[in-house]
Amino acid sequence: MSVLLSELDQGVLTLTLNRPEAINAFNTAMLQGLAQTMRDAAENPEVRVVVVRGAGRGFCSGQDLREFEGKTISYKAHLKNYAGAIAGIATLDKPVIAAVHGAAAGAGLSLALACDLRIAASDAVLTTGFSRIALIPDAGMSYHLPRIVGQAKAFELMALSPRLNAEQALELGLVNRVVGIESFAEEVHKLALELAQGPTRTFGLIKQALRESATSSLEEMLDVEAELQDIAGLTEDHKEGVAAFYEKRAPRFSGR
Ligand SMILES: CC(C)(COP(=O)(O)OP(=O)(O)OC[C@H]1O[C@@H](n2cnc3c(N)ncnc32)[C@H](O)[C@@H]1OP(=O)(O)O)[C@@H](O)C(=O)NCCC(=O)NCCSC(=O)/C=C1/CC=CC=CO1
């Protein structure tokens, strides 16, 4: 059985981390599979949104701590596998949703933070986890977490590794919404379909603007917005959106 399952339906590419016996801990094959899947998703116009979820009772417990047992490996070299997957998600010009149920720990939380939206089931437990094994946060966590919760809170979460429940995560802005476990799959699907029927190219441009804003001044962003708006303004979906407004009907976006 593959460690990464994928299914494309109605524009929604659902990726399932599939090592439930270890709460979907990352191994090298899974990381390389994720990176390749993001490259493929970027090229495939049928894909309009990606959902990342975990099989079994949790989302992802981070690096498989047994993968390198008895071996001497360079963490620096191994982190290239994470970089491919995390950068692949962040730079994919389509929305990526993390559907988090059960545990998201270590690089499993880093993965969720790299996604554009995080929907938590009511049983979710989020923890940075790295400091419990005397490691620093990796897989992009030291980039994403302070941008979501601020420097001071990020230090607290990274240094003390508390286990946050879904409501605590929501209060900190770590997740966008919390959904009861019984309706979790349905709510994730509903949101994914809504995004899949949206102006896909514009979503990609929104992601690009947000990435650039992380390191830009206001003046620079005014220029970036002007460049990106020029591109958005030439899409078929912009024409359709304006036509729908005039005709007082819902737009039918094609993603082009
Ligand atoms: C908080 C937990 C994720 C979940 O706790 P709980 O629900 O109580 O479940 P457990 O009983 O602890 O776990 C169930 C089984 O899964 C196995 N398992 C869990 N996590 C891992 C893991 N990361 N690697 C391998 N196996 C794992 C666990 O042993 C149980 O199996 P058995 O019943 O057969 O024993 C909790 O499990 C937890 O805290 N897990 C560890 C979190 C962690 O430290 N993750 C790694 C952080 S480091 C990282 O993510 C990234 C890197 C990157 C590069 C280089 C080097 C290191 O790290």
From TrEMBL:
<dbReference type="InterPro" id="IPR029045">
    <property type="entry name" value="ClpP/crotonase-like_dom_sf"/>
</dbReference>
<dbReference type="InterPro" id="IPR018376">
    <property type="entry name" value="Enoyl-CoA_hyd/isom_CS"/>
</dbReference>
<protein>
    <submittedName>
        <fullName>1,2-epoxyphenylacetyl-CoA isomerase</fullName>
        <ecNumber>5.3.3.18</ecNumber>
    </submittedName>
</protein>
<dbReference type="InterPro" id="IPR014748">
    <property type="entry name" value="Enoyl-CoA_hydra_C"/>
</dbReference>
<keyword id="KW-0413">Isomerase</keyword>
<dbReference type="GO" id="GO:0016853">
    <property type="term" value="F:isomerase activity"/>
</dbReference>
<comment type="similarity">
    <text>Belongs to the enoyl-CoA hydratase/isomerase family.</text>
</comment>
<dbReference type="InterPro" id="IPR001753">
    <property type="entry name" value="Enoyl-CoA_hydra/iso"/>
</dbReference>
<dbReference type="Pfam" id="PF00378">
    <property type="entry name" value="ECH_1"/>
</dbReference>
